[in-house]
Design goal:
The structure holds 2 protein chains of 2 kinds. By secondary structure, chain A is mainly alpha-helical. Chain A has 7 helices and no strands. Helices cover 81% and strands 0% of the residues of chain A. Chain A is elongated and about 45 Å long. The two termini of chain A are 22 Å apart. Chain B contains 1 helix and 9 strands. The N terminus of chain B is likely disordered. The chains are: A mainly alpha, B alpha/beta. At the A-B interface, α4 and α7 of A face loops of B.
């Protein structure tokens, strides 16, 4: 919630309804796999939109990095669930993420130029903050399988890096 | 006889290399200092090199990384590849990965 306050009205609007990621009770491994994969897919779709619409070079570079990294992690996640024989299971947290992402996408689609760049980067800061909180507080502590936990821990370091990258670009735009 | 000599020389060489490796971590004996990137970290995080030597970063992650000194230089290291840069005298720097700024490293340029 702290990040929502910092990034003001636009980010609060973009992320209305997204704060329920921690509302779910302890998820199972198939649910955790689904949440992690869904979170990656959402950021891949946001990156594609940004590569299409962004004007600022640092914003474009950031979007390209999100596309490359999240695709790489999701490929690893798919290999792991296949190896473990786990079938990812849809759940209220994944559904809430998808629903919030739909609202964010609608809001971003209406913006152009510098307004789009700023709103996209701010939404990426807030989104990674939200996913990192969920990884730290809920998903990593709940994961039972050691390999799944280890992939989530790598994911956390990666996404913390993305959050800082987004913060650097957001500061550049000010 | 030749075989024996070769063996002995091998032992001497590998013994010498082991001593070198122990006293100068990450340093090969060809003027190249190696930094491995693994699991979102530069390892070792700090290396010491002399001017004219080369730093080689080996990226074992699945993600592209950079070694960046803001406003000065940047080396791009795609996943599964390596990239290098020659150390300039007096250029002791803190560097980071531009894509993941939580990854930090330091190059100390030795004066002697």
């Amino acid at each position: 919630m702290r990040s929502l306050l910092v990034f003001g009205v636009s980010a609060a609007f973009l992320f209305a309804g997204a704060a329920s990621i921690l509302a779910q009770d302890k998820p199972t491994d198939p649910q955790i796999a689904h949440i992690a994969y869904t979170a990656g897919e959402i950021d891949i779709e946001a990156a594609k939109l940004a590569l299409d619409k962004a004007e600022n070079q640092s914003v474009k570079d950031f979007a390209q990095s999100m596309l490359t990294d999240h695709q790489a992690v999701n490929e690893q996640a798919l290999k792991l669930v296949k190896k473990l024989g786990v079938t990812p299971e849809d759940n209220p947290t994944s559904q809430s993420l998808v629903s919030a992402a739909g609202k964010t996408r609608d809001a971003l689609s209406k913006l152009e130029g510098a307004a789009f760049d700023k709103a996209y980067i701010e939404s990426e800061v807030a989104y990674h903050q939200q996913v990192n909180d969920a990884l730290e507080d809920l998903l990593i502590p709940s994961a039972q399988n050691g390999e799944l936990k280890s992939l989530l821990e790598t994911g956390l370091k990666l996404f913390q890096g993305h959050q800082q990258h987004a913060e650097h670009v957001a500061a550049e735009l000010k | 006889m030749t075989g024996l000599l070769l063996t002995r020389r091998h032992l001497l060489l590998s013994g010498g290399a082991a001593v070198l490796a122990a006293s100068l971590p990450a340093r090969a004996h060809n003027g190249t200092v190696h930094v491995t990137i693994e699991n979102m970290e530069f390892r070792p995080a700090e290396v010491t090199a002399h001017g004219g030597e080369t730093i080689e970063w080996v990226n074992r992650d699945r993600f592209p990384h950079t070694a960046t000194v803001k406003g000065k230089w940047e080396v791009l290291i795609p996943p599964g590849t390596s990239a290098s840069r020659q150390v300039q005298a007096g250029d002791s720097v803190n560097y980071y990965c531009r894509f993941h700024p939580n990854m930090k490293g330091r190059i100390v340029v030795a004066t002697s």
